[in-house]
Amino acid sequence: MTKLEEFLKEPLIAYFSMEIGLSTDIPTYSGGLGVLAGDTIRSAADLKLPLVGVTLLTKKGYFHQEIDETGQQIESPDEWNPWEYMKILPERAQVVIEGREVEIAAWLYIQESITGGKVPILFLDTDLEENQPEDRGITHFLYGGDASYRLKQEIVLGIGGVRMLDRLGFDIKKYHMNEGHSSLLILELLRRYKRDIEEVWDEKLVWDLDRVRRLCVFTTHTPVEAGHDKFPYDLVERTISDLVPLEVIKEFGGEEHLNMTHLALNLSHYINGVAKKHREVSQNMFPGYEIHAITNGVHSYTWTSEPFKRLYDHYLPGWANEPEIFVRVGKIPDEEIWKAHMEAKRELISLIQSDTGIQMDEGLLTIGFARRATAYKRADLLFTDIERLLRIGEGKIQIVYAGKAHPRDNPGKELIKRIIQISRELDGRLKIAYLKNYNMDLALKIVAGVDVWLNTPMRPYEASGTSGMKAAHNGVLNFSVLDGWWIEGHIEGYTGWSIGPPPDVEADPAKDAEDLYNKLENVVLPTFYNDRHTWVRMMQNAIGKVAYYFNSHRMMRRYVTEAYIRD
Ligand SMILES: *Cc1c(COP(=O)(O)O)cnc(C)c1O
Fold this sequence. Notes:
The chain has 567 residues and is of the alpha/beta class. The protein has 19 helices and 20 strands.
């Protein structure tokens, strides 16, 4: 049994994230951000990096999704039992919320790698008998409730997280904020390192900004201004007290409202976006800060299906902990790549059959689209001109969808409805399956079991995107708008295909559908049906070029050399 003491011997990086996707059984994630956090932790464990994760327990998860016949999403709490995976530690930390003292406990989960590496993760929990009923629910729902609920969660995560690490005896050398949800940790550090007034000649100098800055690393994930967490100051004043004076919060968090991104930007020595394009977009949004780029990656072992794991183990031993070995993908015979792919495809087809009753055909080009159902991802772009889609694809394609809409995202819910309704209307002509309750297990089955991974975000909203990297690990070809990571991974007709204009040409949403149809008809379908050799070559390139680079081992090595060891 691993004990906490094991992790207290050397200074660690504290990695803070509102959501962490460790496995389907621990439903404390909602999408890409959380899965990335999970991949970060898995790679850190494999690479034996000195890191500790901090997140919320969210005992009722994000939500469990059902979809009724009309396409209406039905949500229910996704309850899980932390006792099955982790143990609660006896120590307590305290924060003050609305003037009440709130007790925080931490559950210890240990991510263990077969390399022997171990990463502890603290899941913070306020559902304790000592707390008032209203405070016990603070750590129940991921992204649930209103601004006040969210602010309370961020107090527990940011301030409570730092205090808990301290209470447990961790020695922290950097605080890495994965998105702005944990920025309040900065206020706690300011308070902690406050200088004595006698030591300084100017009252302002009581705040040791340099010291706090040197401790903080900030990764932003949001390419549009409206997406950043903001709180009105009357709410902040009511909720947070006794920390640092409001003028200080305003100085770094903004005059009008507390902007969590600004707070993190102002007091972090290293700031990065999650793809090169996202760095550029962020730099334009926040001139005056030096913003770097560390392009996201996915955890290779987690996102490779069983048939491909067997193939890689045989031909590319060592690949899982050294994904650079994918450079030798040419050693794998074409037929074996195709065979492994067909095995993954058949597994998906049988899952679709048991889940929806729809019997797909293993010989047809299968297109996959699964991710959070939210407007900018444009899950329905493929249906811009249904007649045209039928002319191109009837008898030749079939489509698999999955994805949850946030409970308050009505346009996202409408998207699900629209797809379900179209699938009804096209019944008998084009098979379209919408799988319910998208999660990490399902994600792996879909990304590995389709032939083409479709991605149609509105530019520049996709900061990075990661599901296409998972597809590539399974030899599945990306067919995607040139946004986020794909700008770096795309070589036309070689690693996959683009949709719409090149990144330096202004986005034109109307043209995207046009290009999608043209390329599907004239390039993708003919290659799939008439030129299997080229198709398999492209599958090899997806593995040897895309998976080779877009993995979280490379990403974490870059965080270490560029962010963690710098002052
Ligand atoms: C990888 C993953 C995502 C991210 O998908 P994108 O297409 O990059 O947005 C979301 N949800 C789950 C469950 C995932 O596994």
